Sequence to fold (344 residues):
Amino acid sequence: MREYVAMSQFTVVTTAAPPFDYEMEALRGMDVKFVTVAAEQLAEAAGTADALYPTAKVTRAVIEAAAARCRVIALGSIGADYVDVLAATEHGIPVTNVPDTFVEEVADHTMALLLGAFRRLVEHDRLVRDGRWRDGRAHLYQFPRLRGQTIGFVGFGHVPRAVTERARPFGVRLMAFDPYVSELTLIAAGVEPAGLHEMLAAADFVCMHAPGTPETNHLLGEAEFRQMKPTAIFINTGRGQTVDEAALVQALQEKRLAGAALDVLEIEPPRQDNALLQMPNVILSAHVASASARFDPARKRHVGRELALVLSGRWPMACINPAVLAKGPLRRWQPISLERGPNS
Fold:
């Protein structure tokens, strides 16, 4: 078991820019200092860190440099795909994230992309601007109404559950594939449990919400896109690497898919020769689904709370590798489940 020696001052090494006013709200009264370094200096500075607060890639080398002293890697994001979580787990370092902070924003954005793609809003905006006012109605005569269509979710975490609340009043059928969620949970939400291939074949909209992990890398590729309806629309507000983008482009070019609405891409920002940028049936946004006026204050306060808990010797609230907690020196402090994090 690792033992932590009390320090007169805690050092949080970060690649985030100051000020840290929101983070410090939970840390007031604790002797904590933030040290900002460039991404390429993170490994060099990691050995001085009681906590890492990264916005840049955290490699195994960084974690090994930090291992002797670091108590937590605190992320200000939902996704942890830029951190070598396996290495952190091997060294007993908890990695925290913000799993429930931007759920409403991402769900809103998902629904906006779905509706915009289904009603071909970008294409109709261009028709009006090009002086083709009378062409719009005939264009939409080709497509059915939304009521009665099927939305399929890949992954059924917080965001897709919030999307179902928004989608249900439209009179749609809801299906989901998630091998880590109980069928009873899906059924209670009014969502049909399904295998991946069953769902892909039935859905008029496929919404990707899987996290970015080695297991989900290119979860949807050529074989999966071939199983989808040629009238289907693909939406991704999760992680770009969960989709084989070349296979998606090919499916769109060959008209095996009707369209796509994407907030995330495999390479961000995209190169200007990316074929998706030239396709009229593709809606793109710049990985902004979580953004709103509360984005920075909410996530920074969450990071501050996690830092305060761990640096004072307690379990964090949202740990993505909770196995390290039972073996470590931090103490469990929540006597009653709050339906979140490792204490739920």
